[in-house]
Amino acid sequence: MKTKCSILATAILLMVSLKFTHAQTFNYAEALQKSMFFYECQRSGQLPSDNRVTWRANSALNDGSDVGKNLTGGWYDAGDHVKFNFPMAFSATMLAWGGIDFAAGYNTSGQMKYLKSNLRFVNDYFIRCHTAPNELYGQVGNGGTDHAWWGSAEVMAMSRPAYKIDQTHPGSDLAAETAAAMAAASMVFKTDDPTYSATLLTHAIQLYNFADNYRGKYSSSITDAAGYYQSFSGYNDELVWGAIWLYRATGDAAWLTKAESYYANLSSEPQSTIKSYKWGIAWDDKSFGCYALLAKLTGKSQYKEDIERHLDYWTDGYNGQRITYTPGGLAFLDVWGALRYAVNTSFLAAYYKDAATTTAKGTKYYNFAKAQMNYALGSNPNNRSYVCGFGNNPPVNPHHRTAHGCWTNNQNGPPAVTRHILYGALVGGPGNNDAYTDDRSNYVNNEVACDYNAAFSGLLSKFVEDYGGTPLANFPVAETPTGEYLIEAKLNGSGSTYTEWSVWVNNHTAWPARVASKHTFRLFIDISEGVTAGYTPASYVVSSNNADVTFTQLQPWDSARRIYYTEVTFNSSIKIWPGGQGESRKESQIRIRLPYEANASAWNPANDWSSQGVDGTLKEVSNIPLYVDNTLVYGNTPTPGVVVPATGVSVSPATGSLNINNTLQLAATVAPANATNKSVSWSSSAPAIATVSSTGLVTALAQGTAVITATTADGGFTASSNITVTNVVVPKQYTVTTAVTGSGSVTLNPAGGIYAEGTQVTMTATPSGGYKFSNWSGAVSDTINPATIMVNANKSVTANFTQVINQGNCDNPSPVTLPFQKEGAGEYCFVISGNISFINSWNLSLLEINGVNYTNTWSNSMPARVNGNYYVHYVGQYGWSHFEANGTESGARRALTNNTAEGKLSGSIYPNPVTQHSFTIRLSNTAVTDVIVTITDMSGKVVMRKGAKANQLFTIDSSIPAGIYHVDVSSKNKKVMSTKLMIQ
Ligand SMILES: [Ca+2]
Ligand SMILES: [Ca+2]
């Protein structure tokens, strides 16, 4: 056995060394340039004036408003829009580390200024989050609600609660990591901005002392983070790491003493005193970085042994054990973001190599680092780059919402093709057999993240220093917006005296995604045949089936050629925005007709401009022009048009009075109604008192008066509104909003949800059957139920309910429903009858489904069902062992039967599936007559909620697309029925 092992080891060594010698060189400077750009793509909040990303704009400007703080800025975590500060701070630390120890490559490639811009952007955010010496905000945005919506950051509409740590809810890992980030950044800014550097250092020291004096895992305080970035390794590593960075930033030996004394607390291999060496540095565990830093800073043999054991394990093995390598040469630690671990460890190898105990070891570590980086850049069996917008055949569909530019709230599109190039983003990477698919929905292998690119950037700078390279001269090339607005139309009806159009206005904006104030289209007709028959333009009647629009009667466009039009404007209350299928498009039905008794010869649609290409099928048409905020954005007008000059303008209302912080919408009307150019600009005589937006929205700022003036672009005509701003003190009122995860309800006492400041409100969480109350999150982090809060701000609170899972043994597997997650050590068996879309697991010893091995694998390919079921066998050794199965419960009919059999149902809905968008709720308990029906889609988004009568017809909104939905029926005080509904 031993002989076999050594032969195998020799073969592996030979293979690895061959790969190293064949490693090619890439343009590392271009990759570094693009990696810096990726961090600019991730920016949240107000963008700086030198923003280079043409498809990004300000976003999430209200972050922190729920807690009365300004928590704007920072980076969106990955392909989502949550700001998870724990990995964000780690990313900032690693980026700064590269800028400190591998500065030369940044400098020679001209990227140092972009690195500093990125570090300043994220550290400004950390400063905002550090609201008191022992108070640090550590997350903005709720994981569940953020992930349930797929669209661009600029048009997010969900609430984004803020979460913090403090003395009673500590988070030593988060505070110490943020301290490390700010200390490291203070070194980067020390020379060219000593004031900023000193500010960062002050925060870093306060945060470290907070971390050290109030011990705890942050993910036990910010519980919403536990589902995404749980602190598995605890905080001992961050306490060493933070002290090391404070030592480097200050030169004060007391910090080094502290780091070395806490080093003893770092974890060891099981049943051993040897420091852990088999994992890798990433957002959770920085121990390996501590080994490398202390080895180099002190030269002590203990640290050198620890880092070399770790790097040997990752290269040619330690004590006969070696990390898994893919056939193509990638050191493969974990299925989730495999490239990130390989590159992070490579950064340590390149940093440490000069201090290695032998030259041969140093060379080995360096060659390893170069081979792993080159694998990521394209030297791999697929001969493809794993960095977006770089090299050969790079990923084009990364799991990234804003880059996708989606308007349908669907990661699978439309649009089918991602609209923006996410330059520089390193994707998760291949599986352990080098296989990889560029699939947007696969967030295990194809997501990008701030933490993936951090050590990656530093290592690229090192290779720029060693091998040169040239950044692209014309980078970034501004993208050309395409398909941002469009009109779809069909013939809604026609007759011998009329045409009726169904016109759909579509907002597909993504450069950046945006919401306009005003949407107008024009329908043009040629009335020559009507004039011949004796009619005049005034004989024609324009009408609409919608209350959502205003429209004009016929206006002359080119009266010599008898071309007239109606202008149709959606009411300003109609929001057309790229946030979903229904949200991104709105319909208006418009009819133009002669008197009904007119002779058929007086009406001819064949010569009508806006009837060209329009038939009974809804499709994109080009002769119905669309104007957004008074600018033509889509379609063609009849040419040549006669220019109708503006002759004046009026503003309504002419006077207005509003209180500080309130707004008033002014409207400017340009005369004549058919003026060709109706655009106006707005200005305020006293912007300190009241400002006005480009669309006439007045915002009151201070007591006084201001004259708001509209000026026409054509002719410079002006009209004004006199605004008086008052400062009336009204009693403050705040709202308390509640949400649940899992299944259950929350009641407020006193009820109502709107309260005067200072009111005590008691919240009671009541779980549904099969669930138990877990904890409060949001404005309250607690496990007590009921919980009482003092209302002193708008608060949103989430009651988290968890499924009560019978931890059945393998003789009696527990039935569980999808989606399902299991974490922790132990052996369990579960049975799933639902339709699994994909499964994933990591850090497990065994994961079998119906006897097929899926250990630590992402897969969407399931084995055949056994007795109609999937039998899951789970064996994990660690608290961070993890399995998850995603998908939906079985189809509607089957789910109904099952639920009835389990006695959960006391009713049904009929028919199911439905085709006519209506059904009857049949309840067995005839005493229940009034119910509330809640319909949610499979992402958990509520698509409809309203009151209904039992045993009477219930109509569903026709806008709800076909699919499978979850229907909850509740009486006044409890849930009476829950089932799946299929809408066909
Ligand atoms: Ca840790
Ligand atoms: Ca005509």
UniProtKB/TrEMBL annotation:
Stored InterPro entries? 6-hairpin_glycosidase_sf (IPR008928), 6hp_glycosidase-like_sf (IPR012341), Bacterial_rp_domain (IPR044060), Big_2 (IPR003343), CBM2/CBM3_carb-bd_dom_sf (IPR008965), CBM3 (IPR001956), CBM3_sf (IPR036966), CBM64 (IPR041438)
Q: Which EC number(s) does the record attach to this protein?
A: 3.2.1.4
Q: Which residues form the CBM3 domain?
A: 480-639
**What are the entry keywords?**
Carbohydrate metabolism, Cellulose degradation, Glycosidase, Hydrolase, Polysaccharide degradation, Signal
SUPFAM superfamilies tied to this protein: Carbohydrate-binding domain, Invasin/intimin cell-adhesion fragments, Six-hairpin glycosidases
Superkingdom of the source species: Bacteria
**Signal peptide (from-to):** 1-23
Q: Which reaction does it catalyse?
A: Endohydrolysis of (1->4)-beta-D-glucosidic linkages in cellulose, lichenin and cereal beta-D-glucans
Q: Which Pfam families match?
A: Big_2, CBM64, Flg_new_2, Glyco_hydro_9, Por_Secre_tail
SMART domains according to UniProt: BID_2 (SM00635), CBM_3 (SM01067)
Q: Which residues does the entry assign to the active site, renumbered to this chain?
A: D438, E447
A single Gene Ontology molecular function, please?
cellulase activity
Q: Which GO terms describe its biological process?
A: cellulose catabolic process
Matches recorded under NCBIfam families: Por_Secre_tail
Q: Which family does it belong to?
A: Belongs to the glycosyl hydrolase 9 (cellulase E) family.
Name the UniProt record assigns to this protein: Endoglucanase
Species this chain originates from: Chitinophaga tropicalis
